[in-house]
Structures are given as C-alpha cells and as structure tokens.
Design a protein that fits this description.
This protein has 177 residues and is mostly helical. It has six helices and no strands. Helix 3 packs antiparallel against helix 4. The protein is extended and about 95 Å long.
C-alpha cells in the first residue's frame, strides 16, 4: 500500500481557486473597482504596519531570553534581539507598504489607463511588476516563517513513560543494611 497522503491544504486551495476564477471573470468590473479601493485605502498601510509591529513585539517577547539560534533571528545575528526585531519590523513594513504602493500604480495604469509611470516602456513596467512580486513574496514568506515560530510550539519528540523498575531487591538491601 502507498504511504502517501493527500495534502488537504493544496486541495482546498485548488477548490477555492476553481470557485473564485468564474466569479472574478463574470464580475471583472466590480472586482477591479474593489481592488482599486483596497489598494488606495490608507487603512491598508495602517493595518499592515500594526500587524507587523505586533508580530515582532510578540516575537521579541517570546525569544528575549532564549539563546540565539538561527530560527529566532529576524535579520542578523550581529544585532541584539530587540534591535533585530525592531529592524525586522521596520524593514518588512517598508518593503511591503512600498511594494504595494508601486503595485497600486502599476495596477491602476494597466487596468484603468491612468499614467503613473510616464517614461516607462512596456518592458520596464513588466520588469518592475516581476521585481515587486518577488519582493512581496520574499517579505511575506519571511514573515510567515516568523509567525510559525511565534505560534507553534517546537516538536520536542515523544515522551515515553516506562513502568518503574522492580526495586524490591533494593528495598530489602536497605532494610538489612
């Protein structure tokens, strides 16, 4: 028999994608307007900064007394833990909010025809889009790793309970002695 198991998360993501694609296709105009509203909302940046700073405050609090290991370092082992978490929050906050601002300009230019990047060729626009997607992916991946560190306990292995040894011989030796 095969020991492989289905990855339920991937199957769920596939089902979600299959449901979302026709909904977006048949409601494209509404979807583009909603996405534009979200990207232009000042609340988006505020939420991003609050979530990131909260996560790294919790990360610092959880690992402040732990010996530095590769897993609980945010940016650099050369920095003290507080500074590492502070600069991690600032770095990822700046990268994500700046990337989203530039992506907003790209999206509005491509979807609505408003010019945000006046002297950019089509090649430049798509090169910028690729670079921005990479920056966003990298930052979100690193933050997701740190979230896993914060909220999941480390696997310490199985604990086996063994029955106590028969100490009757030892008890008799103690009584005699």
């Amino acid at each position: 028999m095969n020991d492989r198991k289905l990855d339920k998360r991937i199957i769920g993501l596939l089902i979600l994608t299959l449901i979302a694609c026709p909904i977006i296709y048949y409601n494209e105009q509404q979807f583009t307007l909603v996405l534009k509203e979200i990207l232009e909302s000042p609340l988006l940046k505020y939420i991003i900064w609050m979530v990131i700073f909260s996560l790294y405050i919790i990360h610092y609090w959880k690992f402040r007394r732990a010996e530095s290991s590769k897993s609980n370092i945010v940016l650099s082992t050369a920095l003290p833990p507080f500074m590492d978490n502070f600069f991690g929050a600032v770095t990822y906050g700046i990268i994500i909010t700046s990337t989203l601002t530039l992506m907003k300009g790209l999206y509005i230019q491509l979807a609505f025809g408003e010019t945000h990047f006046k002297d950019f060729s089509e090649f430049d626009i798509f090169s910028l889009a690729i670079a921005l997607f990479f920056l966003l992916w990298y930052s979100l991946t690193r933050i997701a790793e740190d979230i896993q560190e914060i909220f999941w306990l480390e696997n310490t292995g199985k604990v086996e309970l063994k029955p106590p040894k028969d100490n009757s011989k030892r008890k008799t030796e103690l009584k005699e002695g």
